[in-house]
Amino acid sequence: MLISQTGEYALRAMVYLAADPERAQVTDAIAEGTQVPRGYLSKVLQALARAQLVVSQRGLGGGFALAQPATQITALQVLAAVEPMTPLATCPLELPHHQEALCPLHQRLADAQQTVTQALAKSSLAELVAKPNEKQAFCSQHRSPPPRGRRPRRSQ
């Protein structure tokens, strides 16, 4: 898997917020709407706040919201906030004959990493929300945010 579970959760949360950027969303609503465990989501949201991708508001009407328009936030920025990505510059095997350049295996991996990084840098949250196909915006389990001030009913 190219993206860790933490990265996946961060992307889900950000796409969820981008789907309704005018309203702050509480952690419980985001967790339910993205199917991310609440405790894990709290840590992810804290990392996104430290990276200044979301803002948190306390009190009545509070919650989390995007810090910038969805058109200005890329998938790469979201992932970098929760799992810094370092390019492969030296062969991890540290073999003496690989010190001048990456071996063919690790060069191929470095090239793939660069391709993925470029694609993520070109993908804004707005694009991820605006291009739903026959499936939902980011996964088949996505649900619309609950109305403000009401807790969603749990199905039995």
List keywords for this structure.
single chain; mainly alpha; Arc Repressor Mutant, subunit A; 6 helices; 2 strands; disordered C terminus
The SSE string, one letter per element, is HHHEEHHH
* Contiguous runs where pLDDT drops below 50 for at least 5 residues: 140-156
- Termini separation: 34 Å
Which strand order spans the largest sheet, edge to edge or round the barrel?
1-2
Q: Provide the CATH superfamily of one domain.
A: Winged helix-like DNA-binding domain superfamily/Winged helix DNA-binding domain
- Largest sheet data: 2 strands, antiparallel
Cα shape: elongated
Please give the CATH class of one domain. Answer: Mainly Alpha
- How much helicity do the residues have? 40-55%
Question: Can you walk me through this structure?
Answer:
The protein is mainly alpha-helical. The protein has a domain of 89 residues: Arc Repressor Mutant, subunit A. The chain is 44% helix and 5% strand. Strands 1-2 form a two-stranded antiparallel ribbon. Helix 1 crosses helix 2, helix 1 crosses helix 3 and helix 1 crosses helix 4.
